[in-house]
Amino acid sequence: MHAWPASEVPALPGQGRDLRIHDTATGGPVTLQPGPVARIYVCGITPYDATHMGHAATYNAFDLVQRVWLDTKRQVHYVQNVTDVDDPLLERAQRDDVDWVELAERETTLFREDMTALRMLPPRHYIGAVEAIPGIVPLVERLRDLGAAYELDEDVYFSVESDPHFGGVSHLDAEAMRLLSAERGGDPDRPGKKNPLDPVLWLAARDGEPSWDGGSLGRGRPGWHIECVAIALDHLGMGFDVQGGGSDLAFPHHEMGASHAQVLTGEFPMAKAYVHAGMVALDGEKMSKSKGNLVFVSRLRRDGVDPAAIRLALLAHHYRSDWEWTDQVLQDAVARLGRWRSAVSRPDGPPADALVEEIRDALADDLNAPASLAAVDRWAARQQERGGEDTGAPGLVSRAVDALLGVAL
Questions:
Q1: Which residues contact 102 (CB under 8 A, 6 or more apart)?
Q2: How do beta strands 200-204 and 20-23 pair?
Q3: How far is residue 147 from each of residues 43, 159, 165, 187, 380, measured CA to CA in Å?
């Protein structure tokens, strides 16, 4: 599966700072010091509907991570998956009376277009669950051979008790885990499981559903968590720098994935930091496909909204905060974009070297994008009020905003 085209990242004078970011697993900040190649895995979409603002906010957060690392003169090895076969996709295809493959391909294409418009840097490897199945099957077989998996009515489950570190990502108690498991794709009430929290690794073939050859596992399809583990281990290996996604993935998805990988390899941890973006609400409730309370990036674009304004609307909120999308949020972003473009279109302005460092400092401090925007606002206000004598300043500001914030002025 191919990703989307990369926008050029302008080079800036000087060098960025190492990223200090909140790690869900430790509950506090960690300073990431990757090697020459920083490694990041961000969980991708299940393509049964278009990209909404909750998706966009999450991918914007991890785009900033990439940009901070690139500014430190590192390379970035970014991997993202597409869960192109799963229950929600099959249910939507059946509801709409469309082929599930056609639905997945259509929505993945739209997602790529949205990411391109928003200037999100693409992953080096963009892998679908279906194409990962040949690598998933041996991992499930190995977990079974290790005694960490068991069969139940031909389905294969992972035993969470096989990982002594289970619970170390989300730090939730058993009852909270059980409730979230039921809410987020698990089946804690299924009779016969060794532990209600045990997640499925391989789902045996069902009538009317797609299935693949699973070798000794029989025909079926993979569970959600093992999909990401297989892709991450194949392309990044253990101990990569950041595992990212929305805060609703901390449990069960990232918790289970970490346990799968740690049992498979005997190494700990799977990732050096587990980083989670907040949720975006609409009319008082979290945006979600199941509720249908969505604001789509593609619809805003069709309505003539500049993607740079959409991106500024996302950047106006700290990535870890939960916030609500409103018309005012978008109007503020459109106005800000106009002020910035007006400022950089002038022939000169106040010196901007200090501004670049201010943006760098803010982003290195747990991706404080709102502080970065405020710094650019102050520079633009000074430029509009008093002008300036530095003919290179507007160009430097434009390049810095593009390189570090992904906003093309």
A1: none
A2: unpaired
A3: 27, 8, 16, 21, 62
Q: What are phi and psi of 198, to 5 degrees?
A: -55, 125
Signed CA dihedral, 82, 326, 185, 164: sign only: positive
Joined together, the tokens standing for residue 242 give 């950041």
Helix (H) / strand (E) element for 335: namely helix 327-344
Domains for the chain: give ranges and CATH numbers.
20-297 (3.40.50.620), 304-405 (1.20.120.640)
Distance CA 203, CA 211 (A): 9
Three-state SS at 183: helix
Note the pLDDT tens digit of each residue in 254-292. Answer: 999 999 999 999 999 999 999 999 999 998 888 877 677
* Alpha carbon distance 194, 25 (integer Å): 26
pTM over the 0.90 mark: yes
CB 203 within 8 A of CB 223: yes
Distance from C-alpha of 397 to C-alpha of 392, rounded to nearest angstrom? 9
pLDDT in tens, 348-366: 999 999 999 999 999 999 9
Q: What is the DSSP letter of 349?
A: B
Check: CB of residue 7 under 8 Å from CB of residue 121.
yes
- In angstroms, the CA 31 to CA 34 distance is 10
Cα 381 from Cα 340, distance rounded (Å): 9
Q: Compute the distance between CA of residue 236 and CA of residue 38 in angstroms, rounded to an integer.
A: 10
Is residue 140 within 8 Å of 201, Cβ to Cβ? yes
Cβ-Cβ contacts under 8 Å for 151 (sequence gap 6 or more): 144, 157
Q: Beta-strand (E) ranges in 160-314?
A: 200-204, 220-222, 240-246, 271-277, 280-282, 285-286
DSSP 284-318: TEE--TTTT---BHHHHHHTT--HHHHHHHHHTS-
Strand partners, 4: none
Kindly tell me the burial class for residue 112, based on how many C-beta atoms sit within 10 Å of its own C-beta (0-12, 13-18, 19 or more).
buried
The Cα 325–Cα 363 span in angstroms is 23
